[in-house]
Amino acid sequence: MRSDIIPGSTFPDYELPDHTDVPRKLSELQGDDPLILTLARGHYCPKEHQQHRELAEFYPKIAVAYTQVVTIATDEHHTLQEFRAAVGAQWPFLSDPGRIVQQDLDIQEYTDPENNPMIPHTLVLKPGLVVHSIYNGYWFWGRPSVHDLWRDLREASREVRPDWDLSKPGLREAWNAGDLSAFHGWETKPADS
After folding, report:
1. Is residue 15 within 8 Å of residue 24, measured between CB atoms?
2. Are residues 142 and 189 located together in one domain of the fold?
3. Same domain, 111 and 172
4. pLDDT tens, 122-171?
5. DSSP sequence for 12-52
6. Neighbours of 103 (CB within 10 A)
7. Is the same domain home to 81 and 94?
8. What is the distance between the alpha carbons of residues 177 and 10, in angstroms, rounded to a whole number?
9. Do 141 and 81 have their domain in common?
């Protein structure tokens, strides 16, 4: 991984076609939520299938926690669709058969010249594509467990959500005054509050 991709740095805002063949930017997919980003070897790898099945099982919790997930793989469009369907994923998969990400991040898995994949990584990104944590998954045990992700997402969310602790001084007063800027997901104050 490039030496400038470390916790606290900003991850590149790649734009690649998704599983429906629509170009998507990481920042667009992230919005103002934390993001789990997997840089995957591809459909042929049983380790990828295992990790992504676990993410798919964890996904209902991810979704209710205002968190996004994106997978980038070196697979061609139709193979990418098959990979996504095979693991039961509900999040966007981005196709990078040109290995733009692999080359830019310097993560070519040189031990597999036949498939020429990326060294698999999983990153937790805070809003603005700010790197919170990085996992190198060349060996399966290097990949984050659901428990690792839960811990990372708790820490990242606590840092970026001003309303993490509703007992924080001033929050109730801001809410009552109609200032909802510190409250994630609220565009207008509910009528019955």
Report:
1. yes
2. no
3. no
4. 999 999 999 999 999 999 999 999 999 999 999 999 999 999 999 999 99
5. P--EEEBTTS-EEEHHHHHTTS-EEEEEE--TT-HHHHHHH
6. 12
7. yes
8. 35
9. yes
Q: pTM higher than 0.90, yes or no?
A: yes
Provide the terminal-to-terminal Cα distance of the chain, rounded to the nearest Å.
49
Residues 47 and 120 in one domain: yes
**For residue 64, what are its two tokens?**
């209710």
* Burial (CB count <10 Å: 0-12, 13-18, 19+), residue 19: buried
> Does 6 fall in a domain?
no
Which one, of 18, 30, 53, lies nearest residue 128 by Cα?
A: 30
CA 179/CA 30 separation, integer angstroms: 24
Domain with 180, as residue range(s), is: 162-193
